[in-house]
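User: Hey, quick favor. My workstation is busy. Could you predict this chain's structure for me?
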Amino acid sequence: MSNAEDSVKPPELSGNESAPGGSLATNDPKNVQELTNYIQSMLQQMQDRFQTMSDQIISRIDDMGTRIDDLEHNINDLMVQTGGTAPGTNPEASGQNNGDK
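Assistant: No problem, here it is.
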């Protein structure tokens, strides 16, 4: 059964191989203070990237909202120009019923 266990184990890295998600092992922190600073730096970078992406998403959503508002306005204008009623209006309630007057 040792063959199955050996195939499941991940390979061990030597001192100069690259770790799966990062830098060379020679650049890794050497003590607790360096590790703390390294982690804080990485977390700050992640926070900055997240904030940038979040700001971009919000900006794009705002742009889409403006475009939708403009599109609704243009559709309403076209409906008025063609003699139709704008969406969301009730011709019977406003007295604009074409066939009954």
